[in-house]
Amino acid sequence: MTIDKTEKHYCTNCNIYTKQHYCPLCKQGLSEVIEENEYYPAYEMKIKRRYFIQRLVLFIAIFSISTSLLINLLTDPDTLWFLYVLGPVLYGLLCINHTILSKAHTGSKVIFQVIVLSIMLFILDAASGSSKWSIHYVIPFLVTLATLFVTIIILRKPMKWSEYIGYMSTMVVLGFLPVILFLSSWSTVLWPSAVTALYALLTLIGMVLFSEKTMKNEIVRRFHF
């Protein structure tokens, strides 16, 4: 429930907030002192605590990256080892702000983790000499694991199938990305990309075969069958 801060009065009988001094439903007189309402202080304290943690984490991230960059440039400017710090710190910053502190949908958190973690691994891969282990093996299996995770959520909670159809469709599309990387010569190891694409294809077929008619039409519409 979204709370308007200008609405200071709360009715415990009807569970509503109002600007008026009495409840419009039960006509009960309401308190004029905001401190007497136990819901507002708790809510505002929670928001303030979350903002403080976000600012603190951001400051620690900036401090870590800038300090590492300075030391790197002063001691060994030919080797950019600060990238080993940059990737994990940025990942931790985004992970705390989005995955842990935000109230985003679980499906969006999974997709966010796949994208951000893939970028971080790619940066670490590049920093270690660009042997492309991230593109060859890790990212394809990361996409497969995330798709499996969303599938398990849907199987455990079939009633939330409609909520996850967009996220599942996105994961299926991401499942074909490693094959595209292979065809464009970014990746030279076929079997991890092929396994990921096959799993994405099987997931898509399963979505079409086992979903209800309404959801099936939605899947067909999204993938333009």
From TrEMBL:
Tree of life domain: Bacteria
InterPro entries recorded: DUF6320 (IPR046283)
Keywords: Membrane, Transmembrane, Transmembrane helix
Bilayer-spanning residue ranges: 56-75, 81-101, 110-129, 135-155, 164-183, 189-211
Record has Transport as a keyword: no
Protein name per UniProt: DUF6320 domain-containing protein
